[in-house]
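Q: Structure tokens for this one, please.
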Amino acid sequence: MEKLIILGTGNANATKCYNTCSAIWNEKGYFLVDAGGGNGILLQLEKAGIPLDEIHEIFLSHEHTDHLLGMVWMIRMIAARMKQGKYEGNLNIYCHRDLVEPLLTIVRLTVQGKFVKLIGERIFLHPVEDKEVKEILGYQIQFFDIQSVKAKQYGFTMKLQNGKHFTFAGDEPYRDCEYSYVKGADWLLHEAFCLYSQAERFKPYEKCHTTVKDACEMAEKLEIKNLILYHTEDTNLKQRKELYLAEGKQYFKGNLFVPDDLEVFVL
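A: Here is the predicted structure, written as tokens:
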């Protein structure tokens, strides 16, 4: 059995919830997917009951601040625990090749040298190519380029222990290049910046994002079984789930989820 822990659901501007990131758990450990925009990742992990010592595999999708900067804190804190003898094993970070040097540059500029020295010794950055498969926590995870027009970004797809198909599509709209990874997925994580009725207010299309209606129409067309919407605005969190579900269910007949931060799914 594996679980998906949604650590954050908000877009880059969100302040009332954490930026979009998540973790997949199985009996071998945790696979962290992005880290949000700052040291709030540490609080989210604490609230979720996820010890730093049990995170050995991390994927960084792209360079935007709301995904990248939390990674600096993960490296900083895990390196400190390594130095203290409180972290066993190594930390593996996967990202596309063009992201390796920017991440290293920020870490070198902001993290103490004694911790930076662990990069290459116990902290390893693994560049992945489009369509490349890596074995992580017993899964064969295939990474793919979503062909972003803003900043190079990768998603991934994997087969779960129960044989179901799980796909993380990044934080931009589905594109045809993702068809083979998304079509018929049992679980799809997809962004939805706002309600369709709020498009004039939040202007998602100008930011290369979608609305709930758009995401759900796509998911219905591609025969998705379970659709999780995230990377949203945060202006009305108390009603977000109700409002997004009401709009989305008009266009999508599968199982639709609009999680709050720290919500857990049994996959």
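A few notes: The domain at 3-266 is CATH 3.60.15.10 (Metallo-beta-lactamase; Chain A). The radius of gyration is 18 Å.
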